[in-house]
């Protein structure tokens, strides 16, 4: 089985687990995320505006915005790294590419902490996304410019034993779920 086929099979199983977890709600996940971000007050953070069954980081992002800049990703084009635009809790949003909402007025920002949505994760810091490679290219670019923390945000049910990983897949530094925080070496 090719790595692409392995990833497709892992995605299919993970989407089902995420959908079931989403139906139950995030519990205290946003509170755990807020606690983690409180340790980095003032650092530029990028979150995301959730789509489909992604876990919702907006309460934690709103709290972080009271202490420093918060951004959201902007898809510029296929096969390119993401850019980031400042976001505020009351910002006017418009429809962006791939169904994600984006600020109607886009002020560029560069995050030091990137809250990463995902489909699945493992205890080695591996992350399985939607397959477009946007976050892998983005994290690679940001890490080449300086230290950046990749913070996965997910339901605990999205954890899997092991993921098919390629050399271009960027590792996570930390995972936050409703059950707590998992930190990886580094």
β-strand number = 11
- Ranges with pLDDT <50 over ≥5 residues? none
Strand content: 15-25%
Helix tally equals 4
**Physical arrangement of strands within the biggest beta sheet:** 3-2-1-6-9-10-11
The run of helices and strands is HHEHEEEEEEEHEEE
Number of domains: 1
CATH topology: Rossmann fold
Proportion of helical residues: 25-40%
Subunit arrangement of the protein: single chain
Structural class category: alpha/beta
Q: Biggest sheet, in brief?
A: 7 strands, mixed
Rg, alpha carbons: 15 Å
Write a structural description:
With 186 residues, the protein is of the alpha/beta class. It has a single domain (3-183), classed as 3-Layer(aba) Sandwich (Rossmann fold). It is 28% helix and 20% strand. A seven-stranded mixed sheet has the order 3-2-1-6-9-10-11, with helices on both faces. Strands 4-5 form a two-stranded antiparallel sheet. Strands 7-8 form a two-stranded antiparallel sheet. Helix 2 runs parallel beside helix 3 (58-65). The chain is globular. The relative contact order is 0.19. The mean pLDDT is 93.
Outline of the structure:
Belongs to the 5-formyltetrahydrofolate cyclo-ligase family. By secondary structure, this protein is an alpha/beta fold.
Distinctive features:
two-stranded antiparallel ribbon; Rossmann fold; EC 6.3.3.2; alpha/beta; FTHF_cligase; 5-formyltetrahydrofolate cyclo-ligase; seven-stranded mixed sheet; 186 residues; ATP-binding; single chain; globular
